[in-house]
Amino acid sequence: MKVSIVGITGYSGLELLKILNNHKKVQVVSIHATKEVGQCISDIYPHLTDQCDLVIEAFDAAEIMSKSDLVFFATPSGIASHLSEPFVEAGFPVIDLSGDHRLSATSYSEWYAKEPAKQAILDQFVYGLAEFTDVKGKKFIANPGCYATATELALLPLVQAEVLEKDSSIIVDAKSGLTGAGKGLSDSSHFVNVHDNYVTYKLNKHQHIPEIEQALHLFDADLLPIQFSTSLLPINRGIVSTSYLKVKEGVSQEAVQMIFEKAYADKVFVRLSKGLPDLHQVLGTNYTDIGFQVNEKTGILTVISVIDNLIKGAAGQAVQNLNLMMGWDEAEGLPVQATYL
Amino acid sequence: MKVSIVGITGYSGLELLKILNNHKKVQVVSIHATKEVGQCISDIYPHLTDQCDLVIEAFDAAEIMSKSDLVFFATPSGIASHLSEPFVEAGFPVIDLSGDHRLSATSYSEWYAKEPAKQAILDQFVYGLAEFTDVKGKKFIANPGCYATATELALLPLVQAEVLEKDSSIIVDAKSGLTGAGKGLSDSSHFVNVHDNYVTYKLNKHQHIPEIEQALHLFDADLLPIQFSTSLLPINRGIVSTSYLKVKEGVSQEAVQMIFEKAYADKVFVRLSKGLPDLHQVLGTNYTDIGFQVNEKTGILTVISVIDNLIKGAAGQAVQNLNLMMGWDEAEGLPVQATYL
Amino acid sequence: MKVSIVGITGYSGLELLKILNNHKKVQVVSIHATKEVGQCISDIYPHLTDQCDLVIEAFDAAEIMSKSDLVFFATPSGIASHLSEPFVEAGFPVIDLSGDHRLSATSYSEWYAKEPAKQAILDQFVYGLAEFTDVKGKKFIANPGCYATATELALLPLVQAEVLEKDSSIIVDAKSGLTGAGKGLSDSSHFVNVHDNYVTYKLNKHQHIPEIEQALHLFDADLLPIQFSTSLLPINRGIVSTSYLKVKEGVSQEAVQMIFEKAYADKVFVRLSKGLPDLHQVLGTNYTDIGFQVNEKTGILTVISVIDNLIKGAAGQAVQNLNLMMGWDEAEGLPVQATYL
Amino acid sequence: MKVSIVGITGYSGLELLKILNNHKKVQVVSIHATKEVGQCISDIYPHLTDQCDLVIEAFDAAEIMSKSDLVFFATPSGIASHLSEPFVEAGFPVIDLSGDHRLSATSYSEWYAKEPAKQAILDQFVYGLAEFTDVKGKKFIANPGCYATATELALLPLVQAEVLEKDSSIIVDAKSGLTGAGKGLSDSSHFVNVHDNYVTYKLNKHQHIPEIEQALHLFDADLLPIQFSTSLLPINRGIVSTSYLKVKEGVSQEAVQMIFEKAYADKVFVRLSKGLPDLHQVLGTNYTDIGFQVNEKTGILTVISVIDNLIKGAAGQAVQNLNLMMGWDEAEGLPVQATYL
């Protein structure tokens, strides 16, 4: 299968290229960006020397459709919303890693403050949370956001199992490494400001909030709005999503264990931790590791889920979706050996 | 005034020495430890060259009482509980930075799993949360814990103002740099395991939980147990305490602002942030900076308080307590210029 | 091919397991350590969940020889020197990642201050710097040290080409991440002491000095002793070896470029950087990247070589040696996609 | 004494403000910048809340001269070269922390690639390496650069003592934290690129090279050009300057010890380390700590000097120069207690 990547020079694009380089059934035939067009990618990114010698091309939908079988968008928000149109109209498969096809037009306008894709385009896309959506045979995938992936995988089994009290909001305290904030230059990504610091940002305003609520509402339309914090850890990779959930009386540690075990019994990329998971055990892989603890004094269940934001939270899940779309082995090409050290 | 420090080689002891070296009214006359007795401290800690040439001595209560006017304990838990006895019995002033005189004997036994001080000794100690306790003229101070300080200063004004819903537990997601975990060698403090990681530990089991509950109960005996997470940030210094609080209907951002402003109007070491505070603005100082946000969708108030765990969370507050005990300028000797960069 | 790993719980052992899990021609059949015997490795190391469920076994040479075809030693120094004996005597293949079979008995005693292996055993081993030694068909490989690998690959082509002035010592200023210092607990590996610091240690006393000199002397017996600094970077992985070399008059940037190009023309794991290499371009891979600059004012050539100390500097090169011993594809199983971010 | 700071929002400007806030004889009466004019500085920098409520003003030389007694320039290179002119012409004291008045016009043009100050202006300035220049009563001080300070203090005593071989270049491998690279946004200061990395930049092209050579040549006009590397450590503060020096035959460890002891016997801000110094022992202070080792096998002396680049390497030395100019206590206002942890 031949694929093209649009937005190659962003963090997700580079990670996607790396994963696809290890994929037996896929060949990356073109890479696209707005800057550095005409340059060999390994001249700009020396880590790709001997690994990829493609030349960066300007975006050209017709050209991509002529030589590829599928296009990945790994672009900043506000771009794929428009660029995806000719592909969708032509029935040409798209996997969008950006947030542009995850929400309704109204919700997108509100949370992204950008012009949404046309509703007719949005209607074609399936939200591809790989463990919960059946994407086999689908053509247009909206790949979930990083915070959203970690949080939804922690919450969905519990919402489905109806063990949460209805009168309390779900509270999520999520943390991310700096690659999650993107490659753009700003005071908030300057090394000096991030290092030895911990900065909470976009409190209750992060654009993954409506995405998570939308996913949860599929299983329980009555859920209260969620309380959602996002903070930057002074590290490059990784998301830790800590959820505090008021459980119904009598819901025990063992009951929660059974819920998660059942939910993920046949899911290769979700693992239940014996204790609480940390980032080292998933960085470099497509895994989501989940641990939890019921506090009998407070009736609150704490769930901690950890992922590599660039892999399971972006490029890895995109490839997982590709594998599932095509009916291939779900794990093909995906990294499973953690960096660990 | 002449003072002695017991437990000089721990992180709190060293920080205390540093602060007292800048204090106009205090002279450190002896320093004590169990290891490295007989060595000049600047031979072991080169940063003290030309700043302190005291020789480390073994602990000797009688000797300390003969040459000092006050003793600081900066020892690990389980030590000051016993060593404080002769001082208390002799009416010789003690400031204990450890957790050994903060809780009742019963609670201490349960949470520290160590033998508590005698109840008669514990009865003599005042819990010195400097902004809330009047320690003037007191002789025996139990200096608050680091997580406890950050959390209590965020919560007490709100509990006092009775704006929290009674039927919901307070949820605290607290994070600390590694100096908070102490100097001991363990896998969990090995650089390789901490760096690029985020580890949640002692979930609902941290010994500062009963300390916080005890402080809150002074103002509202009916509060539910708190939900409390503690995690390690890959940094050396700093605590971020993030609290999620269900507020009564109609409690607005402005109302909370007024509560905090009133509570801390005349407190030199608590500052209200215009936005959400980060660690850089307090590291190296005795300040507690507090920011907050009411979410009108969820009715949840998020409060973030930040401190330097070794200063306001340990040695700085101990000196602040000393200043208040003695009726001196509360800020004497205490650092107020943040490291910032 | 079936292999066993002795010293599985050290950093090199875990990395080796990870690489071999991706190797098509090798199966790890047993893993050995002195601690945690009898436990499933993924119970201790959660990142290995679903990746390896071997149980840690005590060391037993006969047992290993009965079920394996080759044994890797990833043990601290001073262990393989003795444990290797029955294997060598039985003609059973050994790859030793430790320093125990790299030096003569005399030199080992001097630099490691431990009892050396018997000379008869040492005589069987080949020092396996993969780019310079022909190990095909060999049975006993002493895998090079991390600093040594980075430094020798930077220096050997220049020594061979005879472009260095004979009357000046080679000066090497090498830096390593903390995994290079091993898993042992010590003040020097405590997070608080390493973070935000830069510590030079074992100046002119590092045990890789005789290893490097021995390798260089194979090509020029007259070289002066080298000057060698080792420092700890506050990171987990990576070695940067910066060499300062007085070149003969007239040796130009272009001449050096040609020397390196020629030396590494057919070597898949050495890349010449266009500029000076940094760590990000090699971490997570088995590559050595080399950059350099001739300073015409001083006549000094600066060469910077970078590696991932756990891969090319340990487990990766060990597998590279295995591949070469067996006549397989040199790159089989070895990671080539850098973590990069 | 009343002073003004031009360039307040840069790292050096902010550090200077912090130090002067602790100085008994100095009051900062105005602060100047090109951006954020009209805003209260503590509104932009929350760490200054309650510490400084000055409003940022546009630069106006006449205004500064009317209300201040001295002006500090903490501006990027290429600015003070021109702004200093009216002050010098009016005989109004200037301390310039930038590189604009350190070099001859010719050398400045070559290394900074910017238009130099007029030669008549440059002639008025004294290069203020506080331990070597007598600045008492001087009016115009060019404050040394950060790398230059650390390196010159390591080298000057040895050059003066004539123990270095004349036929070998001095080789310096210097490393700096990111504050040394300034506040500007660029890919090279983006957190993701710096973290877990080690990047060598401006090899043999750093603008502190001519500054160091100029200082050394005052004591030995025949010295060969120096070989100088500069690299970025993934930390915020600190410079480590490692020098490799070929010493004359017979120069021993003890001889070097005596040279340094004699050179710095009465210098309060230079300390000789018993072993090799690390950054933790000087960060947060105005100290330079120096350690060294003679290698008898190679005849090479390694000297390591460490400073806090923002203090001794910039703002601290500027205040030290002020103190010396005015005949005050050299240490007034300057921090001497290391952050350490």
From TrEMBL, chains A, B, C, D:
<comment type="similarity">
    <text>Belongs to the NAGSA dehydrogenase family. Type 1 subfamily.</text>
</comment>
<keyword id="KW-0521">NADP</keyword>
<dbReference type="GO" id="GO:0003942">
    <property type="term" value="F:N-acetyl-gamma-glutamyl-phosphate reductase activity"/>
</dbReference>
<dbReference type="InterPro" id="IPR023013">
    <property type="entry name" value="AGPR_AS"/>
</dbReference>
<dbReference type="InterPro" id="IPR036291">
    <property type="entry name" value="NAD(P)-bd_dom_sf"/>
</dbReference>
<feature type="domain" description="Semialdehyde dehydrogenase NAD-binding">
    <location>
        <begin position="2"/>
        <end position="140"/>
    </location>
</feature>
<keyword id="KW-0560">Oxidoreductase</keyword>
<dbReference type="InterPro" id="IPR000534">
    <property type="entry name" value="Semialdehyde_DH_NAD-bd"/>
</dbReference>
<comment type="pathway">
    <text>Amino-acid biosynthesis; L-arginine biosynthesis; N(2)-acetyl-L-ornithine from L-glutamate: step 3/4.</text>
</comment>
<dbReference type="InterPro" id="IPR000706">
    <property type="entry name" value="AGPR_type-1"/>
</dbReference>
<keyword id="KW-0055">Arginine biosynthesis</keyword>
<dbReference type="Pfam" id="PF22698">
    <property type="entry name" value="Semialdhyde_dhC_1"/>
</dbReference>
<dbReference type="InterPro" id="IPR050085">
    <property type="entry name" value="AGPR"/>
</dbReference>
<feature type="active site">
    <location>
        <position position="146"/>
    </location>
</feature>
<dbReference type="Pfam" id="PF01118">
    <property type="entry name" value="Semialdhyde_dh"/>
</dbReference>
<protein>
    <recommendedName>
        <fullName>N-acetyl-gamma-glutamyl-phosphate reductase</fullName>
        <ecNumber>1.2.1.38</ecNumber>
    </recommendedName>
</protein>
<keyword id="KW-0028">Amino-acid biosynthesis</keyword>
<keyword id="KW-0963">Cytoplasm</keyword>
<dbReference type="InterPro" id="IPR058924">
    <property type="entry name" value="AGPR_dimerisation_dom"/>
</dbReference>
<comment type="function">
    <text>Catalyzes the NADPH-dependent reduction of N-acetyl-5-glutamyl phosphate to yield N-acetyl-L-glutamate 5-semialdehyde.</text>
</comment>
